[in-house]
Amino acid sequence: MTALPKSAMVLAAGLGTRMRPISQTLPKPLIELAGQTLLDHAIDRLVLAGVERVVVNVHYKAELITGRLAARQRPHIEISREEELLETGGGVLNALPLLDQSFFVVNSDVLWLDGKDYALTRLAAAFDRARMDAVLLLQRTTNAIGYEGSGDFFLDPLGTPRWRGEREIAPYIFTGVQLLHRRLFDGIDERRFSLTLLYKRALEAGRLHAIVHDGEWYHVGTPEGLALTRARLSSHRIER
Predict the structure, then answer these.
(1) Mean pLDDT, the chain cut into blocks of 10 residues (240 residues total)
(2) What is the pTM assigned to this prediction?
(3) DSSP letter assigned to residue 206
(4) Distance CA 160, CA 156 (A)
(5) Kindly report the CA angle at 33 between 175 and 178, in degrees rounded to 5?
């Protein structure tokens, strides 16, 4: 088990095109659920797991996001501005000088409720820095609220994921929650790229690991997913 990371990144730079028309006036990370923005939900869960510094990348309607973050008292937040969209991998690479050796990365368009233990604590417990460069949090597709698709991964008993083939239906989806080591980015020359590129490279090297989330997970990437999430949460009380 690695020590709990003290730094993390929340990906909040995207255009939110699938969330239109809502995202035409409001950036997706600032959509509210249960009285709190998606961005704040993510940061709050990082704080609960002991994270002290959070980097947030911004591009689309950046001033609205930075204005919201300025109202927070904790944790310490740093802004990574992107003049051009760098995608997920490029966004993290651009912010790497602000992050530690190992760190959490969380998408800002997902919401999760923890099970028995904090999901982020479980990621840290599963991370063996000698054998792994990344640990992904997966969710069973049958329990993924707001998601309609064919899944992303199969998972063997040892926690090694396998990407689904073109005609396959996989039982697990990647949640957008992960723990990464900075060496995952060694030798990358591209400036704009997806983290998927690095997952595939790590998988080929036998250094990608995954665990399955034991709580609820909500995909809030579209107006339909947002409506489903709000309906489900109406019968829940989000633990603060």
Answers:
(1) 86 84 83 90 95 95 92 93 95 97 94 93 96 97 88 95 93 97 94 96 96 93 84 66
(2) 0.93
(3) T
(4) 5
(5) 20
Whole-angstrom distance, CA of residue 225 vs CA of residue 100: 33
DSSP E strands in the chain: the ranges are 7-11, 32-33, 36-37, 53-58, 76-81, 102-107, 110-113, 134-140, 144-145, 153-155, 161-163, 172-181, 208-212, 216-219
Question: Two tokens at 104?
Answer: 């959490």
Report the distance separating Cα 97 and Cα 171, nearest Å.
36
| CB distance 218 to 146 below 8 Å | yes
Task: Indicate the burial class of 98 (C-beta count within 10 angstroms; 0-12, 13-18, 19 or more).
Answer: middle
Q: Say if CB 119 and CB 112 are below 8 A apart.
A: yes
- Report which of 151, 90, 88, 159 is spatially closest to residue 123, judged by C-alpha positions: 159
